[in-house]
């Protein structure tokens, strides 16, 4: 009985070895960069992490198909390296000697990629399924609509232009008033005119102007 059990286990092990090997049909290679992602907080990849990986793949398969009965034992890992790379396959739970088509495994991984990444605190760049294209995260929508942001920018430019025109207009008006005041001050100064080429002061037309020569004569010939 014991020999029969050992024989069965050895046969199963050989079958699993044939199913999970590099470049086998429906096999996928995984490369993990824990140190790159977490730095000093990096954790060691051990049997517990392998168990978690199998559990997450089984979870992805069950979630992908509501009728799936995939168990952790159906996820096989092989060729595990110290730099954390390995191959895995998912066996058919009903037969256990054939693998699930790669297209189904790929679809399940893509659908649950974020859940798998979060389980290991990694991202698409540090947890790579080499034959499975990375899923693009949904675009982040800004809390403020784009049209409102553009409208705000245009409005700010318009307000800035109006303020500039007002300030420049005030400065030009002040400069013009200053020039006008200086011109009036110059006009209020005593005007100097030229008569026969000799400069003399302008006459005060209201008060008149007395010639000194005639003023002396008037005093000399004043009647008694």
UniProtKB/TrEMBL annotation:
Domain Collectrin-like residues, every copy: 24-224
UniProt subcellular location: Cell membrane
Residues in the signal sequence: 1-17
InterPro entries, sorted: Collectrin, Collectrin_dom
Domain of life: Eukaryota
Biological processes annotated in GO: positive regulation of amino acid transport
GO CC terms, sorted: extracellular exosome; plasma membrane
PROSITE patterns recorded: COLLECTRIN_LIKE
Name of the protein: TMM27 protein
Residues annotated as transmembrane: 146-170
Pfam family, one: Collectrin
Membrane association type: Single-pass type I membrane protein
Annotated keywords: Cell membrane, Glycoprotein, Membrane, Phosphoprotein, Signal, Transmembrane, Transmembrane helix
Species the sequence originates in: Dicaeum eximium
């Amino acid at each position: 009985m014991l020999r029969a059990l050992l024989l069965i286990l050895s046969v199963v092990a050989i079958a699993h070895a044939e199913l999970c090997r590099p470049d086998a049909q429906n096999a996928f290679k995984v490369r993990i960069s824990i140190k790159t992602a977490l730095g000093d907080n990096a954790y060691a990849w051990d049997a517990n992490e392998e168990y978690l990986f199998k559990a997450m793949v089984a979870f992805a398969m069950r979630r992908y198909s509501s009728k799936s009965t995939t168990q952790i034992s159906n996820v096989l890992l092989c060729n595990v390296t110290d730099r954390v790379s390995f191959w895995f396959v998912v066996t058919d739970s009903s037969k256990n000697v054939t693998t699930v088509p790669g297209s189904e495994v790929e679809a399940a991984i893509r659908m649950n990629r974020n859940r798998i990444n979060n389980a290991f605190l990694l991202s698409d760049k540090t947890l790579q399924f080499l034959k499975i294209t990375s899923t693009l995260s949904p675009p982040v929508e800004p809390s403020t609509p784009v049209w409102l942001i553009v409208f705000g920018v245009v409005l700010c430019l318009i307000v800035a232009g109006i303020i500039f025109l007002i300030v420049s207009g005030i400065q030009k008006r002040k400069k013009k008033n200053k020039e006008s005041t200086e011109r009036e001050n110059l006009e209020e100064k005593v005007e100097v005119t030229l008569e026969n080429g000799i400069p003399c002061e302008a006459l005060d037309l209201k008060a008149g102007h007395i010639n000194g020569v005639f003023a002396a004569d008037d005093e000399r010939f004043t009647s008694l």
